[in-house]
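Now for a concrete sample entry.
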Amino acid sequence: MSQVIIGMDPHKRSATIEVMAGDETVVGGGRFATDAAGYRAMLAEARRWPERTWAIEGCQGIGRHIANRLLAAGEDVIDVPPKLSARTRVFATGQGRKTDATDAHSVALAATRMPGLRRVAADQQLAVLRILADRRRSLGEDHTRMISQLHQLLLELIPGGAKKALSAAQARALLAHVRPRDAAGKARRRVAAELISDLERIYQRKKDANKELTALLRATGTTLTDLHGMGPSGAARLLVEVIDITRFPTRAHFASWNGTAPIDASSGDQVRHRLSRAGNRQINRVLHIMAVVQLRNQTEGRAYFDRKVAAGKTPMEAMRALKRRLSDIVYHQMITDARAAGTGPGGHLGAATGSSAAGLHPSAGTSEKSLPGPATDDLTPGKPAHSPGRSRHSPSAPDRRRRQAQSA
């Protein structure tokens, strides 16, 4: 029998599958529990087709638990993004009604019609990085929540409250001079003291998590932490979300994926671009933090931001342009790491597809938005990169003289 696609709509306690042949004929399916007995029954049903590929919606989200079990059993699994399956469902049915059966059908259709979907691999190193990165993010969220609660209590205990950047030790010193006499004040002081103790524990856990992430990142060989404003948590998040940077042909594809590329909203003679609300928001957040850190110091990013503001852009527009530049820098760094990992001793690293055009600094002269037009990328390793101080679309000095002579 020919290859079949098993589309799956996963949930915590159940999974609905539909088996689709290459001509989009539905040849099987069903709803199974995700416990041990249900999982065995689902595998037994799927093994009726020796040549099979599982297409699971959201392998980085709710479908991760079932995808990991299938990978451990030696099954072939591809990831279908939820947005793609949602659009397929609307186009296939003509309406947006959503059931487990229609979801499984749309996932199978998307996997059958769309080549190049990402295959899920059982990478233990990335799995550990993801677990620790999620834990580090959770600790950061707990820290932010506790700091907000502490500021609220200190504002009611101390006239004017405390400064914005407040450490646990500074808060403890402030609280030492507070001696409320009423019952409510005493309760506020006691809760504030408990929050300070919790903050000290959270801070120590954050330090330990950063050390563990740094050691794991060093083992991967990544150089993302060499970038200004990129900490171990952000670098780990990039690795686990991107997985394989070479799946993005150019830096423009990467910027579109992470939501830093502006969207063309031109109409008629009016040419304008708007902010993209799509893309991977976790990576967009990493780039935003990186931009904020660079703006706090005298960096290339700060100089680029100041030039944009001086040119008439608002601070928000300048920040968006800076994030787009930083996306190019991150892409270049990850491409370089990937090529270095695939190069033997003494190997030569040539120009990757679109990887060297933006340079290592935000001042490199490339467009802030993806420009339409035919692709001119050349994978020839010996192809020289253009000058980072001039846009790749700007003519060189000899070209300008030649054109002036022809026009004369």
Observations:
- The two ends are 70 Å apart (CA to CA).
- The first strand starts at residue 4 and ends at 10.
